[in-house]
Amino acid sequence: YTKAIEIDPVSLLYSNRANRYFKLEYYEKSIADFTSAIELDKENPIHYENRADCYIEIEDYTNALKDLDKTIELAPDDAYYYNNRADFYREQGKYDEALIDYATAIEISTDDYSTTRAINNRALIYEEKEEYELAIEEYTKAIEIDPVSLLYSNRADGYFTLEDYEKALKDFTSAIELDKENPKHYVNRADCYIEI
Questions:
Q1: 173 φ, ψ to 5°?
Q2: Which end of the chain, N or C, is less packed with Cβ atoms under 10 Å?
Q3: What backbone torsions phi and psi does residue 34 show, to the nearest 5 degrees?
Q4: What does pLDDT average to over the chain?
């Protein structure tokens, strides 16, 4: 990439090299290249989003949030960027801000993945706040949209915590039917059998 950049210094090449630096955990070099990509293509939110990931890795949360904010400024109708900022807030323990962004993502989403991602992650916040009934309601909404093993497993965890082992058993069984190669589902189902 370095030689290609010397010949033709375009944002795509800087971004590609930055991604390689990121994978090698050379975060400062990655930040520098994403910054160069941004200077050449200021309206592309993905460069800001990728640079935010670098800032998160070096625990520069202030600059990470600035870049995540910029992605939304540039793409205010894209649920992907609201989900990303909400995930950042959730990791920082800023649940109220995360819930607002997840709600926006759900409202503007045009695809099932973005919608279920926001609903699932909102449910994770409710679990972290020990509001298990709300979490189960959210997982149920997400399952109605996209019945995948992760969602059944997450809802089963909520039922298990509430000691509703029959419902947990049913959901872990559904998770197994959808993902037979995940040993965690079998272990969790076994725990239900022990409790019953």
A1: -65, -40
A2: C
A3: -65, -35
A4: 96
